[in-house]
Amino acid sequence: MAELFHRKIERTAIGFVLAIIAAASVGGIVEIAPLFTIHQTVEDAPDMRLYTPLELAGRDIYVREGCYACHSQMIRTLRDEVERYGPYSLAVESKYDHPMLWGSKRTGPDLARVGDKYSDLWQVAHLTNPRSVVPESNMPSYAFLARTPLQTDDLRLRLAAQRDVGVPYTDDMIRNAAQDAYGQATPDSDYASGVTQRYGEATQVRAFDGVTTELTEMDALVAYLQILGRLTDAAYKHTAAPQKPPEPVK
Amino acid sequence: MIKQLTSSERQGAAVLLGLLAAIGVLMAALGRTGPFGIHGLIVILFALALLFPVLSTFYEPEPDPERLTYYYDDPIKAGIVLTMAWAVFGMFMGVWVAAQLAWPNLAFDAAWSTFGRLRPTHTTGVIFGFGGNALISTSLYVVQRTSRARLAGQLSPWFVLMGYNLFCILAVTGYFMGVTQSKEYAEPEWYADLWLVIVWVSYFILYIRTLARRKEPHIYVANWYYMAFILVVAVLHIVNNIAVPISWGSAKSYTVWAGVQDAMVQWWYGHNAVAFFLTSGFLGMLYYFLPVRAQRPIFSYRLSILSFWGITFFYMWVGSHHLHYTALPHWVQNLGMTFSVMLLVPSWASAGNALLTLNGAWHRVRDDATLRFMMVAAVFYGLSTFEGSFLAIRPVNALSHYTDWTVAHVHAGVLGWVALITFGSIYTLVPSLWKRERMYSPVLVEVHFWLAIAGTLVYVFAMWNSGIIQGLMWRTYTADGTLAYSFVDSLVAMYPYYIARTFGGFLFLLGTLVGCYNIWMTVRAAPATAGRRLDVPEPDGAGMAPSPAE
Ligand code: HEM
Ligand code: HEM
After folding, report:
1. Which residues line ligand 1 (CB under 6 A)?
2. pLDDT digits (tens, 9 = 90+) for B398-440
3. Which one of A53, A68, B27, B281 has the largest count of C-beta atoms within 10 Å of its C-beta?
4. What would be the CATH architecture of the domain defined by A53-236?
């Protein structure tokens, strides 16, 4: 019976095409659509803040360099992971992440909570030559980042595009994107105060790569690494065995 | 190669290439010295390189109308050459990234050659370059033979093939410059993605129009799989790649999906790229070339139906097994796990169907390395789907996820299944396309076979070991309840396996090079004279087309 029926659809290409589309659509619709409608999918975190333009630039460098190929940013709900890396990751922590960077391979350790774990100095030394700090490491060296000036003229466009896909950047933030990037890495400049004013008092304003004379890609990447896991404290409140967030380091 | 194009088709090609060059100029003007501008230049060069042969034959006389009584195989020949070229490139990059994990200084302190930028050139080079070209060429070959009809049109197959390769070139050159969306297997940026949509729609139309010309009432099984591959990949590609570029003159874009929804969309795409690119399409190959080579009909028509609809329906549910124990809601994880386990049934139905088809032809499997490629591919297909269903079980995945075990599973699938079935099909296809009696050297096919098997086994065993060791070290506790190993301890334990894997990959690459040489020599050999009129579209000269068994 079923075989006879199949003999029939096999005779019309268009019928077959429609049958394939029908069969293949169900799974995706059932699993994906509710993620947008069920409210509990993403927790509430009123203290959640946005990436500053400098951190966003750093994130884009993280994407460009393919750091996600070796590093995850998703601590699973398993005891050993929580003890190794900190409280497990919540959905809300990546709610502004376009794209998410959860990763699928840990050639290196998870970075979801690496913010404030090391000093800026360590991060710069490590990125410049990982084997100078961790001799056994197989991470590539990224010395060129410190030599490359950060391109800031398109930061405005980047923030605007982020707003188009749903991140609540204000007009003020978009207009001042380039200045804010400069200000965040140059604490003595006139632009520094605008950053904390727009992005909150907790924003880290300092010369991330140790040099204030020039804004480099190293500044941006380190600023991003230092904010990982620090956009909200929600994870520290949600877990059964609360841990304290790390103390800020310099 | 393009001598068969009519003069109006040559004009059409020239216009299309002119348009393409104009797009390139526009991109170069908007993007200036940024990656977008460089891609503009690449597009211009690509268009000019193709314009050259078109213009140099522009005023040649019209082709012989007799050609219409043959299958149209010229683009397929080009496709096979491109397949092998991408195989060499992609696998070389694979060996290089493998070596970088063992000896990190092999990046030579440059930006373009760091692991993070090279890794996607490997995955894209092998999956889309090697796999994609193999799928396009074999599908165009198979649809003609099983429909006993010539391709619908002479220009559109060239457009599909060349357009697709332009996409691959833009993708790979982009990674070197750091142009990527970071979505695994969907790294190319918005403009390359848009281009692929155009190419893919033409591919679909070409396929459907050729099927419409078929002289057989039924559509043969292999075509079901190729159609599922074409259709579903289109849907997946479009949904996963919706993005907003930061400007029309920049390569950079941001995906519209965020966080947990992005993760689900990405892995719904990601696993179905596995399903419909690396499985469905290659099953299409298996269902045609294995019976042809074994000279036996498919064992069971019913199993084919069961397997086809099972795969098409179940696969779309399983993406969430990439996100076990993450911030994705539990119910989705459990659905993914359940369907992954059920998926074993249709997967083994196909693997079993292939092996049972060989029943009664085992002496051929013994003597013919080409058939043995396909037989072993079916076995690895069975193994890697079994492993996949096992890894999808939550507690197992707790150990395997993030480790080299995943990489072992991947390469059992792609080396053992995808690459072997492709080589088996190519060794069947090449003599038929170029009208040779057989491959230049059966001994070299044999050598390739053993290099490929040895390479796959070394690779997969090394990664199974390293993956399981890694997973266990991460979760080992000391007697007083603290973690026993630091991350770096686990890294140090990996090095011997990274070296072994590099060696295994090198063997595999060596086999591919042997294959290239053999194909080259076959193409250069003198054509066979016998049997030329057998492989033609007329209903009475069915030639190689197998019919489904009852
Ligand atoms: C010459 C043989 C090959 C070698 C040496 C090789 C090597 C590698 C290496 C080193 C990685 C990165 C693993 C990691 O990040 O730890 C990788 C990933 C990958 N390769 Fe290969 N590869 C080879 C052939 C292939 C082929 C033929 C295919 C597909 C047709 C393929 C598909 C992939 C995929 C899909 C990944 C990503 C896996 C993941 O994300 O888990 N490889 N390969
Ligand atoms: C029944 C069929 C299959 C099932 C249920 C399955 C299941 C899985 C699971 C559970 C993972 C690990 C996800 C993770 O922990 O991150 C995985 C990864 C993968 N599998 Fe399979 N698998 C199947 C067949 C195949 C086949 C035949 C191939 C290749 C031809 C393949 C290619 C891959 C790739 C490329 C990945 C790596 C994705 C990534 O992390 O980048 N799978 N699969």
Report:
1. A 69, 104-105, 107; B 91, 94-95, 97-98, 119, 122-123, 126-127, 130-131, 184, 406-407, 410-411, 414-415, 418-419, 505, 508-509
2. 999 999 999 999 999 999 999 999 999 999 999 999 989 889 9
3. A53
4. Orthogonal Bundle (1.10)
